[in-house]
Amino acid sequence: MSKYTWIVTKDELDGNVSEAVGKIGPPGEQHRFRFDRVITGGKEFRLLTDDGQVKYSGFILGEFSGQEPLDEYGRHFGCTSIQYRERGRWVKVGPNDDAAGMQPLSNTG
Known about the structure:
By secondary structure, the chain is mostly beta strands. It is built from two helices and six strands; from the N terminus they run E-E-H-E-E-H-E-E. The chain has a six-stranded antiparallel β-sheet with strand order 2-1-4-3-5-6. Strand 5 (79-86) and strand 6 (89-93) form a beta hairpin. The longest helix has 7 residues, at 35-41. The protein is globular.
């Protein structure tokens, strides 16, 4: 099984009819965490364009550093940064940061 799984749950620009909704990573991995487990137990992320506009949002679960959804998916569609929800606030994660070290969040906020 992969050490992490991410899923895009919303296309903030094109809505729920977008092909991005439901995109799961890492690409090519056959053994992933279950969809419902990623959403209920994962960390919420959002992918932003260079002008700060949120393009995609989703969840990631497992052992990860933080850049995976951006590097494996978002950059191919104009995203340049990733943020994680931490204690009710969005925190930008850079290439040298470790998002996995953030405290787990409840899915209520």
